[in-house]
Amino acid sequence: MTVPVIELEQAWALLLELRHRVRTAPNSAENPAALLEIAADGSWIAKAPLTESSAELFDLYLPMARACRERPLTVAHLGQSLDGRIATESGASCYVTGPENLTHLHRMRALCDAIVVGAGTVEHDDPQLTTRRVAGPNPVRVILDPRRRLAARHGVFQDQAAPTLLICSAELADVPAPGAAEIIGVAVQDGGLNLAEIVRRLHQRGLFGVFIEGGGLTVSAFLEQGLLNQLQVTVAPLIIGSGRPGIRLPPIQDLAQGLRPRHRRYALGEDMMFDCHMQD
Predict the structure, then answer these.
(1) Which phi and psi angles does 261 have, rounded to 5°?
(2) Hey, which pathway is this one from (predicted)?
(3) Domains of the chain with bracketed CATH
(4) What is the pLDDT of residues 97-141, one digit of tens each?
(5) Which of 17, 87, 160, 199 is the most exposed place for a label (fewest CB within 10 A)?
């Protein structure tokens, strides 16, 4: 009897099934449909033949699919040009990377519990932050807007496609919420929101898989404060020559002070993604 090969579409369905099980019954068995055996350290063995693309899918997405109280996970992503730019000087960023990276973002959205972006991303891109390109649920949308600069007209506040949290300085939390958003006030620390407190508050709500999708300042702040488990950087074969840089951290004096994380590379169409593990 020939055993069916696990193709890409079935592999994605298995990941969604696993994510649903972890969310609804975290103490139950994790092995979806008995086709995937997952060890405590996250390594896995398929119980059926699978394609190379399906194996890559499991390697890349299993950590977020398994995120829970015992295994919280915070992952950030940036898409940039060969010269390290994520947008032009005016903020235009659609699209630096190709369609395969956009599909990757939507897969991460479908598996995470909460997607986090800064006010600048909403202001310039007016993103929907939903899973339109793949099967899977929309995550809770979290907008970081410390000074309450965003207008209520933005789609994330009006479309009601998913629960939306607006996180701002505690002293501005009494200002009426834009649209259907819920306001959460947190303390300001060193001129910005207390990001560790934000992660803690999300965990309190049962949101243990957190995906930081942008922009550069937001991702850099989480990275600088040591709050990322993984950092994904997708590099496109594009030279912009000027514009907004991706990662911005305090200056170092020697390259030995730089970060050289363990990583794996994934080809996304013409782009190359570096999936960096910031904490082992």
Answers:
(1) -75, 155
(2) Cofactor biosynthesis; riboflavin biosynthesis
(3) 1-66 (no CATH), 72-250+259-277 (3.40.430.10)
(4) 999 999 999 999 999 999 999 999 999 899 999 999 999 999 999
(5) 160
